[in-house]
Amino acid sequence: QVQLVESGGGLVQAGGSLRLSCAASGRTFSRYDMGWFRQAPGKEREFVTAISWSGSSTLYADSAKGRFTISRDNVKNTMYLQMNSLKPEDTAVYYCAVTRYGMGRSRSNYDYWGQGTQVTVSS
To answer: What is the pLDDT of residues 64-84, one digit of tens each?
Structure first.
């Protein structure tokens, strides 16, 4: 089965940058679409961005477009989220996820989830 471990979260000031990583294990990782979601206290888990198995297609939430960049390295079995120009409203637990059946903006599209990594942006 697919196992996912996020890392790279932490505390950063507004305007700063962080790079999150998601290390994946799985026999056919290179053929899985993947995505990032985030969840703040008291809020629903929301879509941030997603990437196709080949990296040729991406999706971004309006809140992330222009500031965040999703990428993947299938040789290393790792997905990345580069976050620039961070804002306090980006504060949340960030989760990586995998779907074997096609990426999308809905949580229901994804089959496997990591444990999450905390991102805190101070003002």
So the answer is: 999 999 999 988 989 999 999
